[in-house]
Amino acid sequence: MITLHEGKHYIIDGTRIAKLEELPQQSAQQAKEATLTYRVLASHNRGGDMENLDIRFDSMGVYDNTYVGILQTARASGLEKFPIPCVFTNCHNCLCAVGGTLNADLHKYAVSACVKYGGIYVPPHEAVIHQYMREMIVNSGEMSIVSDSHTRYGTQGSLSIGEGGPELVKTMVGKGYALKYPKTIAVFLTGSPKPWVGPHDIALSIIGKVFKNNFVKNAVLEFVGPGVASLSMDDRNGIDTMTTESACLSSIWMTDEKTKRYFEIHGRPEGYKEMRPGAVALYDGIVEVDLDTVVPSIALPFHPSNVYPLAEVIANPKDAMAIVEENAKRVFENNKNITCDMQSKVVDGKIHVDQGVVAGCCSGSFSNIYSMSKIAEHIGNGLGAFGLNIYPASQPIMVALNKSGAMTTLMEYGARIKSAFCGPCFGAGDTPANNDFSIRHTTRNFPNREGSNPAMGQIASVALMDARSIAATAFSGGVLTSAEDVWEDFDVPEYTFDAKIYERVVYNGFGKAKPETEMVYGPDIKDWPEMSALTDDLLLRVASVIRDEVTTTDELIPSGETASYRSNPEKISQFTLIRKDPEYVGRTKKTREYERARVAGDTAKSEEFYTPLRMIGVTTPVEELMKTTGIGSVLYAKRPGDGSAREYAASCQKVLGGLANICIEYATKRYRSNCVNWGILPFTNPDDNIDLAVDEYIYLKGIRKAVEDGRTHIDATVIAADGKARILPLDLPEVTEDEKRILLAGSLINSYKL
C-alpha cells in the first residue's frame, strides 16, 4: 500500500510519521534543516539566500546526443578548462540507424575536447552515463549536473540534477545554477519486498500514485525509513533512476552499510559518508510505501504512470488491451492512418507479447540480469521466436555476469546479449514490428520511444515491467506472466567490480588540460546560427496549436535516428514536431524567411509580413518597423516538456525562428529553462480552451520593456485571418534577473558575448 500524506509532516527518529500538531514546540526551521536535502543544498549554495539558491556542483556529465551542442555553446561562451570533473560518455548515438561517419566523428570531437579542456572520455559501449557516474564519480554529500533527465545518484547520498545543455554551460564557465528552494517530499519506506518483486515494480507503483496529481512535481524526493535497509544497492539504483518519471526535481537517499560496501566494491571507500536525517525532520509531504504490499506491476502504453497490478492485467486481458487502444486514439489523434490493434494480442484468454527488452541505467544491473538467468533455468524453455534483448549497464557488469555464468545461461536459452547502450530507452535499438507489443525494463514507454514512426503509418506499443516478470514472460512462450507465478528462491552472489576495465580504455584528463590541442571537427559538426536580441516589439505567427494534456520532449523533437544529426542545428531542426504536427517545420521556416529578410534590410518582403499590423491600424513606416519589430513563430501546447532534458526540444524551435511558447504550465523546470536559455519567451495562460488558431498573428507591443521591467502580465493582441483583433492575456511569471538578461540578449550564447 502507498499512502500520501499531504502537507507538512515530521519524521521522528527515521521510524515514525507525525503531524505538525503532534510537536507544537518543535522549531519548523530547525526540523527543515535536519533533512538531507537542506544539508546538501546549504553546503553547495554559493550565496547566502537559501530561498533563491546559487548552486555549485562537484561533477558533471554529458553524452553523445548532447555534448557537441554543449561544447559549441561553452566555447562560444568563453570556456577555458573544465573546472570540475566532466565525463563524456558515448552511450546514445553509437548505434543510431544512420549511415556515414557522423557518430564516429562526434567521438573524435569529444576526445579532442577532453584533451584540450581536461575532460574524462568513456568510449562507446563501455558504460551508460549514469552507471559510470555512480561507479566512478559521485560521492556522498555531493551534487552533480548531467545533461540527461534521468540523472539520479541519490542512492550514493548525492543530490544530482538532470538539465538541458545551457545549464551545464553555466557550470563549465564558472557560473552557478539558479534554483528556488524546492519542496522536499519524504518517501518513507517500511517493510521488505517479496523476492519476486523488483525495483521497477516499486518505482512504477510510486509513479502511478504521484504523477497525475502532481504530488511530487519539481520536488526533491528524500528516501528514508526502516525499509531502505531491505533493498540492495542495485534495487535502490533502479528505483532511484525512475523517480524522474514522477516529475520530481531530484532525489537523495539515507546511506547505510550497504552504501558503504558499494563504495568499497568500486574501490572508492573515501567517497562514502553516513547521511541520515536528524531526529526530527520536517517534510512538505510524505509518500509512505509499505514494501511488503508491492506487487509485480505493469505500466501500459503510453506513459509510465499508466500503472496496474500485473495480475489484474493478466486476469482481464481484453479490458487491458482496450485501455491501450483508447490511449492510442488520444495519442495519435492527428495520425488518422494509425491502427492500434491490441485485441489481436489476446489469444485463448492470454496476452501474447512480441518482444522483451532490459536495458539502461534503471535495469542493466548485475542482480537484475542474474535473476533473469535463474528464472530461465527454472522454467527451462527456449525463447523460440520471442526476441529478448539484454543490455548490461556497463562493461564491468558484463564481465561480472560472464564470470558468474549468468550470461552463458541466458544465451543458451536464446537471449541476445548486447553492449552498454541507452538506445532502447529512446527509440534507437530493437524497434518492434508495426502493431507489436513490447515489454521493457527501461525508463519510458512514451509514443515512439521504441522507434516506430507514426508519420509513416508505423506504431508499436510498449509496456514497462520489471526484468523478473519480463524473464518470466519470455521463457513462458511470450505469454504475459508474473515473476510471482514462476518463482523459485535463489541467492544473488555479491557483485565483483574490476576497475582495470575502465583504466585500460578511459581517458582521464581532469586537471591536465592541454589548451594547445586542436579540436577535431567532422564535416557535419556545425556552429549555432546567429541569433538576434529581443526587439522592442514582436509580431509572431502561430505555427502549431497542440491541445493534448501533455506534450513530451519526444513529441517536440523525436529521438532515435534523428539524434545523430545533433551536431548540426539546422539538420536536426527539420525533425521538430514531425510526429506530432508534420506541418510545423514548413510553417516556421516560411516565417523565418521574413525575419531573415528583416535583418537583411529587405523592405518589400518585410512589409508583406507586417500586413496584419496594417489591418489593425498600425501606420508606422516599414523601415521603422524593421528596426523595432522582430518576426518569429510561436507554439501553443497545454503542458509541454514532460520527459527528457534534451535542450534541442527548445533549441530546434529557436533555430526555426521560434521566439515564444504559450502553455497552461510547463511540464518540467528543465524544459522551461531550456526555452529561456535559447531566448524563447515562456508565456503561460491558464485557459484550458484558449482561443488560438494556426496562422493567426500575435502582436507583442513593448515586449522588451515589459521584460526589462519584470512585468508578469502582458496583454497581447491576436490578429485573425480576417483582420479582427482581440486581446490575449499572457503571464510571464518568475523570471529571474539572470533569465531576464538571457531573454533580452536573445540566447545564453548572446548574453555571454555582451
How would you explain this protein's 3D organization?
- The longest helix is centred in the last third of the chain and has 17 residues, at 584-600.
- The chain is 32% helix and 20% strand.
- It is α/β, with parallel strands linked by helices and 754 residues long.
- The mean pLDDT is 92.
- It is built from 28 helices and 32 strands.
- It folds into three domains: 2-293, Aconitase, domain 3; 297-492, 2-Layer Sandwich (Aconitase, domain 3); 537-753, Aconitase, domain 4 (Alpha-Beta Barrel), CATH 3.20.19.
Concise synopsis of the structure shown:
With 754 residues, this protein is an alpha/beta fold. The chain has 28 helices and 32 strands. The protein folds into 3 domains: 292 residues, Aconitase, domain 3 (2-Layer Sandwich), CATH 3.30.499; 196 residues, Aconitase, domain 3; 217 residues, Aconitase, domain 4, CATH 3.20.19.10.
User: Could you give the count of β-strands?
Assistant: 32
**Biggest beta-sheet profile:** 7 strands, mixed
- Return the average pLDDT rounded to an integer: 92
Number of spatially distinct domains: 3
Low-confidence stretches: none
Task: Report how far the terminal alpha carbons are from each other.
Answer: 55 Å
Strand order of the largest sheet: 29-28-26-24-30-31-32
Strand content: 15-25%
Shape: globular
Task: Supply Rg.
Answer: 26 Å
Oligomer: single chain
Number of helices: 28
CATH topology of the largest domain: Aconitase, domain 3
CATH architecture label name of the largest domain: 2-Layer Sandwich
Helix content: 25-40%
- Main structural class: alpha/beta
